[in-house]
Protein: Nucleoside diphosphate-linked moiety X motif 6
Organism: Otolemur garnettii
Amino acid sequence: AGSWGTSGGQGYTQDPPVGTCDLRGELDRFGGVSLNLARLGALDRLDAAAFQKGLQAAIQQWRSEGRIAVWLHIPILQSRFIAPAASLGFCFHHAKSDSSTLTLWLGEGPSRLPGYATHQVGVGGAVFDESTRKILVVQDRNQLKNMWTFPGGMSEPGEDIGDTAVREVFEETGIKSEFKSLLSIRQQHANPGAFGKSDMYIICRLQPCSFTINICQHECSRCEWMDLNDLVKAKNTTPVTSRVARLLLYGYREGFDKIDLTMEEFQAVHTGLFYKLFHKELPANYKTIPGM
Amino acid sequence: AGSWGTSGGQGYTQDPPVGTCDLRGELDRFGGVSLNLARLGALDRLDAAAFQKGLQAAIQQWRSEGRIAVWLHIPILQSRFIAPAASLGFCFHHAKSDSSTLTLWLGEGPSRLPGYATHQVGVGGAVFDESTRKILVVQDRNQLKNMWTFPGGMSEPGEDIGDTAVREVFEETGIKSEFKSLLSIRQQHANPGAFGKSDMYIICRLQPCSFTINICQHECSRCEWMDLNDLVKAKNTTPVTSRVARLLLYGYREGFDKIDLTMEEFQAVHTGLFYKLFHKELPANYKTIPGM
């Protein structure tokens, strides 16, 4: 685990040898050093060859100090420094909108640096109306022609699972709904739509707050409230949709507590950040009584 | 949804205006155009200024043809072309080891291009021995000093949840185990250890196949088989560990079917890829009987 590339403020490396450009990195508590080009002065006047020479000298220095890794942060408009770094052995770790981060492993053996995000997260909303036994289904205009599925889509950065479900259902169908539980998780690798990354698809149970369909023409060709029994019987549906329809039928008949993962919010011990935890509902006596 | 940046093979754009460098993109079925610099000839002799001029002309052409987005793939050693593209409005979409991908949105309104991976996935293994009521717990050397938690760590690219749990448990503790079920999912945003991305942490129930602890000194300061009742009572543990301990106690007393999400493998309709689906076990009659 660990928190590479985040700590900082543990001091700086020693001055580099005289005669090279001044590349002082910031030390981290894992034995790495971090160099952020946005913080260097006079960057516009520095050419790529001088940078490469300076970086080579700095690497030698860091190696002699026993540093095990280098993180290099480069603003997109200064990307002329990427190829010189790559020719010294740096690789991309990741890039976001306006900057990239490269790494070089100096330690023994294979790199122990943490990777970047490995999954995209999609969420589908199974909007089920208990009073009428109707379930909201769509046919996707782009992908799954004539197959009934649940409305849904990709989580936006920083968005909670339940919020994605409610937002996507509304965007695609015009139906307002409320998060009730998490029902199912699918993990898939090498999905061609995920740029070679993995895909986590989560289906939530939602309760409708409105009933008038207002379809998004961009995304859906059809949308309707279907009797749950008909979705269970339907041939033109995906295996996951069919399975979740059966799960909902089980819950509808024998109680949703049989199928629901409920959500609770907790606060992390070290960071103080809030997070959401999903699992089968725990009876109250198990939650509260200490030392059972 | 959709599968941007993956299709290709739908023909090429028209020839660019004479006098600029030859930047012919590949069309995709979503109305975008994709330009892979690795496929251009004579790239080494092309300078950044000529590239910028050629790209500007090509964008004008693509715009006039009604293309709505441009994808630009650049090998790391050709990164001198990034800044010129950025000055024409391109941003990084993502980067992997030896190449980066930039995008420019030409359509109306805000970009509808899909984002990149948003989550890292970690997995913890709750190795519980029913016959002795003992659970395997560790104290992390780096992060959670003196707090009992379950062994675990980040999924490697393309690795299944259950495999991560079994691998991490073995690496940290030397205990061999077998995947039984998925118990709990935590979603957390802006975790400082995740480079600003979100974090999905999944806890699995594992059954031990060996019992002799062989601790990894890099990662753990302590490891032991603890009575489950003691973990439920423990003060020096994280909220998630404590909650999952209570969940396990509930399952131990009243049946693990109360808490387990079991796993099944399916095959995707369109891609033919296999994937794993987790949800509360569905009684056999609900799985098999059509048209209930």
In short: The longest strand of chain B covers residues 177-188.
